[in-house]
Amino acid sequence: MNTKYIYPIALSSFLFLVSSCSLIFDPIDTYSDVTEGVNEEGDEVVFRDKAAVEGHLVTLYNQMRDRQEHWYLDLLLIADAHADNAYGGTTGAEVIPFENNAIEGSNSVINRDWNRYLEDIARANRLIVNIDDVQDATLTTAERERYKAEAKIFRAMILFDMVRLWGSIPVITTEAEDITSETIGDVYGDYFPSQATEEEAYRQIEQDLLDALAAAPDNNPSDKTRFSKSVAKALLAKVYAEKPIRDYSKVIQYADELAADGFDLVSDYSDLFGMNASNTDTKMRNTQESILEAQFFSGGGNWVTWMFGRDLTNWNSNFTWAKWVTPSRDLIRAFQNEGDEVRYQEAIVYYETSWSNYYPSNNYPFMYKCRSAFSNIIKYRYADILLLKAEALIQGGGDLAAAADIIDRIRQRAGGLPRLSSSVRASKDAMLDALLKERRLELAFEGQRWFDLVRLDKVEEVMNAVFANDSGRRPQAYPFTETSYRMPIPQAVLDQNPNLVQNPGY
After folding, report:
1. Which of 505, 501, 465, 455 shows the shortest CA–CA distance to 484?
2. E strands, 306-376, where?
3. Burial per residue of 96-119, b for 16 or more beta-carbon CB atoms within 10 angstroms, e otherwise
């Protein structure tokens, strides 16, 4: 029998299985005899042939389409509703704590995300660890390296989300062997892994991405759904902007390499999130600005819009209950104070509802960047990386003029907003404030705001003030402190794995 994945399991179950032949976990994406079993010599194998490998690679890509809860839905709850961009939206006990800073380890959203991320990592590891053992001459060396590179980019993407949420996390890069009475001492740590430090986690992400650059597919302007070299470069730019291994020169390097790969801002901001004239399909896919996106078509639509607002392709579908991530008065005021009509109209829409949790039901705002069953979900886009380059220029080399030019370029695309003033351009602190504001308006409801506040050490300053400035926000349960920068490790996971330690403050 084959060990399929490393997952959190109950200690009692573990001890029971010691006396049996192995640990078996049947994942949601169950494998059939076509994708695993025995080879022609009768030996047990993970991947029987090239078709099995390619089938498993498809399961990795399917996570981008079919399993959006953790990497998109919940990430927006954390990044926007746990920050000042949004309220929780619904009155559910598992959502409100993100709004009023009352998150605990028992929260089911946090627990779901932790387990889903580890499932994704296990899927990536399965390909990375086993592909070189496949006995199929039609699977060339170049193909092996390319598939492995794509899986490493996927693993790095998942680890990056995890480390930014929890800090010290298990960094799992292998598959555990079967548990027997003879092997328990050797494999115990594989099934109950301890946490790596943040820096160790970032180093693994960095290594995966650097390894992938050699063999990953090139950017394809007509297909932005692939884990390409350009996706690796975008992730490297984001990784090098973070504190443990911050390197501003490399942020600039990879931002410039993405420009050389052909990425640029689209001239019309509505091309990124808009619908066609008849509201029957998304306006555009694979724009010049999109680096990685999930795409949805007839017969396999994007269900996440149910959670955020109306489905413009099916007007009354799933619109009888309150939605998540309701735009905050503070964000609306930020758009209005800036005179930013272009991005405001693309980010927020108003409908009449049957509920009034935060606003009058006859004029209720919704986040608008996922507006139909066929809307793209853009995971990475060039404007984000370009603004990170501006941040690196401010923080690293002190080239305030070059950073200001980037911010002005973003503002020009947003309906020709005024250029930054000479007084702002002359001050590093003022430039950082301008950058943070620009990222907020440009990237609202794209899962960035909370991580921007964390990266720039602005959590306490911004979040402890917003409750007094935003009359619609629920009362603050606890003040934000130096221990608020990370989410709690799920209590159920701690109960299962004695080698994990809860983050401070929880």
Report:
1. 505
2. 326-327, 348-351, 364-367
3. bbbbbbebebebebbbebbbbbbb
Are the C-beta atoms of 318 and 310 separated by less than 8 Å? no
In the chain, pLDDT over 90 holds for what percent of residues? 85
- Which pLDDT band holds residue 301 (cuts at 50, 70, 90)? confident
Query: At a CB cut-off of 8 Å and minimum separation 6, what does 52 contact?
Result: 34, 35, 36, 134
296 occurs within a structural domain: no
pLDDT confidence of residue 184: 55
**496 SS3 class:** helix
User: Taking a C-beta distance cutoff of 8 angstroms, is the pair 202, 245 a contact?
Assistant: yes
Given a contact cutoff of 8 angstroms between Cβ atoms, the answer to whether 84 and 450 are in contact is no
DSSP type of residue 55: H
Instruction: Pick the range with the lowest mean pLDDT from 183-187, 291-295, 466-470.
Output: 183-187
Return the amino acid letter for 198.
E
Alpha-carbon dihedral 34, 38, 44, 45, rounded to 10 degrees? -40
DSSP state of 47: -
Q: Is residue 406 part of a domain?
A: no
Other Cβ atoms closer than 10 A to 137? 8
Integer-rounded Cα radius of gyration of the chain: 23
* Nearest Cα to Cα of residue 487 among 169, 188, 254: 169
Token representation of residue 19: 């006396």
Q: In Å, how far are 14, 148, 269, 444 from 77, measured between CA atoms?
A: 34, 32, 24, 12
CATH of the domain at 208: 1.25.40.890
Judge contact between 469 and 410, C-beta under 8 A.
no
Write down how long the chain is: 506
The parent domain of residue 159 ranges over 1-66+104-214+476-506
Q: Is residue 178 part of a domain?
A: yes
- Round to whole Å and give the CA distance between 445 and 85: 8
421: which residues sit within 8 A by CB, 6+ positions away? Answer: none
pLDDT band for position 22 (cuts 50, 70, 90)? very low
pLDDT exceeds 80 at position 196: yes
The domain total for the chain is 1
- Rounded Cα distance between 85 and 448, Å, is 10
Output the pLDDT for position 397. 78
The answer to whether residue 137 sits within a structural domain is yes
Residue-by-residue DSSP string for 276-300: -TTSSSBS-SS-SSEEEEE---TTS
Each residue's pLDDT tens digit, 114-163:
999 999 999 999 999 999 999 999 999 999 999 999 999 999 999 999 99
Long-range contacts of 297-303 (CB under 8 A, 24+ apart): 297/374, 298/374, 300/65, 301/372, 301/373, 301/374, 302/68, 302/370, 302/372, 302/373, 302/374, 302/375, 302/377, 303/68, 303/373
C-alpha span between 194 and 286 (Å, rounded)? 40
What is d(CA 445, CA 209) in angstroms, rounded to the nearest whole number? Answer: 26
Point out which residues pair with 327 in neighbouring strands.
86
pLDDT of amino acid 5: 41
